[in-house]
Every structure is written in C-alpha cells, then in structure tokens.
Amino acid sequence: MEGTKGGSVERVRTALSALGIDGAIKTFGQSTRTAAEAAEAIGCEVGQIAKSLIFRAKASGRPVLVIARGDSRVNEKMISQALGEKIGRADPEFVRERTGFAIGGVAPIGHTGEVVTFIDVALGDFEIVWAAAGAPNTVFATTLGDLVRMTAGEMIEVS
Asked: Could you tell me the pTM of the whole model?
C-alpha cells in the first residue's frame, strides 16, 4: 500500500498528526493536480496554492523540493544558487522513487526519503495556503510559518 494513493495520503496524515495537526486533509471529487484546479476546488486565489515541485540536483542527484506560490514560475537559477549546484527537472520516476509521491500529489511532508527544501517567501502574502496531501485530489490548509516548521525548509525568493 505504500506506493498507492491511499498510502501516500496516509503518510501525509501521519506526518501532520505527528506535528499535532489532525483531521486537516480535505478530499475533493475533482482534481487538485494543478494550482488552478486546486484553487477552483477550494475556492481560493491561485497564489494561495503552495505547489510542491521536485527538481533533481545535477551533480549530487539529490531531490530538491521547491514549495512555491501557485501563480509563480520557479526561477531554476535562483534555486541552483541557493543550493550551490545546478538543478534540472525531475522525471516522474525520479519523483516517485525519491519522494514516494506521484507528480500532481507531491506533498511538502511525508516523503519516503530525504529532500532539500526551499519555500517561496511570497507565500507569506497569504494568511492561509493550501498544499497537496499525497493524491491529485487531496489538500490541507496551513500557514507559511507552519510550512517552515514542518519541512525545516529554507525561505527564499523562488521567482
């Protein structure tokens, strides 16, 4: 079950519970795979979607998680500079193998392996942001402060 959607969502639920955040995952009958779809389902601004993007560090092969505003485009050069090595897009197999999530459901927490995490400071423009919860139709509400606390990520400008 670990590789299934249910297993992915349960990993996120367990991670949230360990942080004292229970019952936070919302499941929708429609896809929340893209920031626009998520915002429509939730009824919020696209910028409030904390999209989780996985990149691959080119030299070390490490997975790099960038949590960005749903309405922003990540500047890979800025991420590379913060990381200290160039990054590139990760293919679906790399994402699943290194995080345990399928693209479209990558959560900021509950990864099956270590990830380097950067968080978009611009998410602070919103009191509440919404992040994927392990499947293409699940999300949870959080704050920028809680994202930093739960991921130990570094806040940087990403666009």
From this structure: 0.93
pLDDT digits over 99-124, tens only?
999 998 999 999 999 999 999 999 99
Fold of the 5-156 domain? YbaK protein (3.90.960)
Q: Rounded CA gap, 100 and 132, in Å? A: 13
Which residues have a Cβ under 8 Å from the Cβ of 78 and sit 6 or more positions away? 156, 157, 158, 159
In degrees and rounded to multiples of 5, residue 41 shows phi and psi of -65, -40
Cα–Cα dist 76/87, whole Å = 7
Domain ranges for the chain: 5-156
